[in-house]
Design a protein that fits this description.
The protein has 288 residues and is of the alpha/beta class. It folds into two domains: 173 residues, Rossmann fold (3-Layer(aba) Sandwich); 92 residues, 2-Layer Sandwich (Pantoate--beta-alanine Ligase, Chain: A,domain 2). It has nine helices and nine strands. The strands form two sheets. Strands 1-4-3-2-5-6 form a six-stranded parallel beta sheet, with helices on both faces. Helix 6 packs across helix 7. The chain is globular and about 55 Å long. The two termini are 33 Å apart. The structure holds adenosine monophosphate. Adenosine monophosphate binds next to helix 2 and strand 5.
């Protein structure tokens, strides 16, 4: 496995692959790798001759007061896992290289980024995400890029950006990988105090409860919302950041569930912010 830390070298390598018409799969990550990340790399490996994974904790997407400093960093272990899964190139730039002092350009996806995490984390979050992914696309020049449904809004924002700015890349969105008990895998799970870990399931349970209500033909978004909130807030260790039932295309709130809806939520537990979501409509799906 090749490790490339320099932007110029990464671009030169990408150009060489491009000239040879080698399909390049790209998996952008912030490291602290887990099965969720590895599932994207595996999918890329099945669809491309070469898989490039970036490991970069992007300072621009963390807002003041968020967990940039305490975000888990497990570089050595990440390399082992990436190599084990067959990643060909790990791109690991420094923040100084990615963000030189006189930069003044950002990328903003206006409407999709205003909702869900864009409200609770602030507009700057998705500006940070879209900008770094645009930069990475320009450096890595992938044929396909892989994102997780776990960050459903992020995947939509990136899809919109790639269309709007004509990036010649196919965006592939992959299913949420969960722990045995159902908790969505996340690098941040490592920071949940051990005693609180079982209680972090409240959001997942709430989402499943919402799905059961829809299965029982309760199509009123407000009553599904109320039941999920009530479930989550039963535990006083949990702070509900947001919960929304939205269109999976526009992320606008829905009143009636007469088509697929995205039920998306964010909680804080033991100082750690976790997100999860479920896609469900009057005809299912009833499991994931
Ligand atoms: P991150 O390192 O958290 O920025 O995530 C890198 C990529 O992995 C993003 O596209 C995430 O959506 C994806 N990802 C993170 N957790 C999961 C998961 N549990 N299942 C599937 N994809 C995931």
């Amino acid at each position: 496995m090749e490790i490339i830390e320099d932007i110029g070298r990464m671009r030169a390598r990408a150009e060489e692959l491009m000239v040879r018409r080698v399909d390049r799969g790209f998996v952008p990550t912030m490291g602290a790798l887990h099965e969720g990340h590895l599932s994207l790399a595996r999918r890329s490996g099945g669809e491309n001759a070469v898989t490039i994974m970036s490991v970069f904790v992007n300072p621009a997407q963390f807002m003041p007061g968020e967990d940039y400093d305490s975000y888990p960093r497990t570089w050595k272990k990440d390399l082992e896992l990436a190599e084990g899964i067959g990643v060909d190139i790990v791109f690991h730039p420094t923040a100084e290289q990615m963000y030189p002092p006189r930069r003044q350009t950002t990328v903003q996806v206006h409407e999709l980024a205003k909702r869900l995490c864009g409200i609770s984390r602030g507009l700057g979050h998705f500006i940070g995400v879209a900008t770094v992914v645009a930069k990475l696309f320009n450096i890595v020049a992938p044929t396909r890029a892989y994102f997780g449904q776990k960050d459903a809004q992020q995947a939509l924002v990136i899809q919109r950006m790639a269309l709007d700015l004509n990036f010649p890349v196919k965006i592939v969105v992959c299913p949420i990988i969960r722990a045995d008990d159902g908790l969505a895998l996340s690098s941040r799970n490592r920071n949940i105090p051990a005693g609180l870990r079982p209680r972090a399931l409240a959001l997942r349970e709430g989402l499943s409860l919402g799905r059961e209500m829809i299965r029982n033909r309760n199509y009123d978004a407000q009553s599904v919302f109320n039941a999920i909130c009530e479930h989550i807030l039963r535990d006083d260790a949990i702070e509900l950041d947001y919960l929304h039932l939205v269109s999976p295309e526009t992320l606008e709130d829905v009143e009636r569930i007469d088509d697929l809806v995205l039920i998306a939520g964010a909680i804080k537990i033991g100082g750690v912010r976790l997100i999860d979501n479920i896609l469900v409509g009057p005809d299912g799906p009833w499991d994931d």
